[in-house]
Amino acid sequence: MTTQRIRSFLAERRPEGPCLVIDLDVVRDNYRTFRKAMPDTAIFYAVKANPAPEVLELLASMGSSFDCASVPEIEMALAAGAPPARISYGNTIKKERDIARAFALGVRLFAVDAYEEVEKLGRAAPGARVFCRILCDGAGADWPLSRKFGCEPAMAVSVLEYARHHGLTPYGISFHVGSQQTDPDAWDSALASAAAIFGEMAGRGVELGMVNLGGGFPARYLNDVPAAREYGQAISGALRRHFGNRIPETIMEPGRGLVGAAGTIKAEIVLVSRKSDTDQARWVYLDIGKFGGLAETMEEAIRYPLLTEKDADPHAPCIVAGPTCDSADVLYERTPYALPITLTAGDEILIDGTGAYTTTYSTVAFNGFSPLATYVI
After folding, report:
1. Which residue pairs, CB below 8 angstroms and at least 24 apart, start in 325-332?
2. Topology at the third CATH level for domain 261-376
3. Sequence-distant (≥ 6) Cβ neighbours of residue 252 within 8 angstroms
4. Selecting from 3.40.1670.10, 3.20.20.10, 3.30.413.10, 3.40.50.1360, what CATH number does the domain 24-260 have?
5. For 32-86, how does the pLDDT look when each residue is reduced to its tens digit (9 = 90+)?
6. Number of H helices, E strands in the chain
7. End-to-end CA distance of the chain
8. Is 135 exposed, middle or buried (0-12, 13-18, 19+ CB in 10 A)?
9. Do residues 20 and 373 make contact, with C-beta atoms less than 8 angstroms apart?
């Protein structure tokens, strides 16, 4: 829920227009919770979730490593105080010149999922450690990932062998069980595949050393989610089950789970209307929508808590939409939200749990609307 520090900031500062406020105390607490739940697993924060310098500096000071998807993200992590040894270039789709730049900056850990990517790395980052991303089932996730990243587990052996022949160091396996994964057991089958690849590579004389557990650790939105310790227990059990006494080094890439609950967006209602005199549902238009940072409402995948000062009043179904002149800018229609019947233009609304994937999804100036303003407290 929105913290008292955020409420106090909004009450005192009264920022104009929609804005995101991040409470660093929540980020700090979440990091400590993950460390306690999975003490043997290194945390590589997914920078794409929220690259605010204050967030990166806090996590770097606490010892976090960083999962980066681009050279600019690598440069952000370095500027925040992270040494190159604590940075992974985790995108499997990279320009060769970007690989060379990352290598020149000291990065030595790279993701691959194809022979062609291995060839680029062999030329631009000789001797680097590589981990191969494999496809896995995203069942149980609110936002299952597509086949865009990763290869079939059977192919991963050949990709890693190919990496060895190109002067690289085959280091491990990675996967992603889907964003906002609410099933702690979702990692089991992926770890079984990883263990099989470790065995096959060992038979070829290559000892892999690392499993990247990826992200997927959820934030709380409308519904409760399992505690971090439940994920830690389930993953620890799966590692013992599939790797026995030879448990590899593990890393994790939380993004949403670290910063999602740390943020609240303050928005304003622009219009409340109906499409006909017999309409059962009102349309509530906000001054922020999909193009202002709420892209994860696509297909209503992420349903954010909506809070108003009139929540004690009677409620009725509402369709929630953004302010732009694009018909796709409707947040919730398939499953309308119950909102106070007394809402009117000018009322403020807090959109909770919006610390992740909002500022980075906000357009520069679609329809002339300014990018989402951010305050870090």
Report:
1. 325/367, 326/290, 326/291, 326/366, 326/367, 328/290, 329/289, 329/290, 329/291, 330/289, 331/286, 331/289, 331/290, 331/294, 331/297, 331/300, 332/297, 332/300, 332/303
2. Lyase, Ornithine Decarboxylase; Chain A, domain 1 (2.40.37)
3. 34, 38, 41, 42, 43, 44, 212, 213, 214, 215, 217
4. 3.20.20.10
5. 999 999 999 999 999 999 999 999 999 999 999 999 999 999 999 999 999 999 9
6. 10, 18
7. 16
8. buried
9. yes
Residue for token digits 């309409």? 279
Which sequence spans correspond to the domains of the chain?
24-260, 261-376
The Cα-based distances of 216 to 99, 227, 256 in angstroms read 26, 13, 8
pLDDT, tens only, 195-209: 999 999 999 999 999
Which residue type occupies 172?
Answer: G
Q: Which residues pair with 63 in a beta bridge?
A: none
| CA pair distance 347, 75, nearest whole angstrom | 40
Q: How many residues does the chain have?
A: 377
Within the chain, residue ranges assigned H as helices are 4-13, 24-37, 53-61, 71-79, 96-104, 115-124, 153-165, 187-203, 228-243, 256-259
Q: Region of 273 please: left (phi>0), alpha (psi -120 to 50) or beta.
A: beta
Q: Does the global pTM surpass 0.85? A: yes
The question of whether 68 is a catalytic residue gets the answer no
Please tell me which residue in 68, 136, 318, 325 is annotated as part of the active site.
325
Report residue 138's pLDDT band, with 50, 70 and 90 as the boundaries: low
Looking at residue 63, its amino acid is G
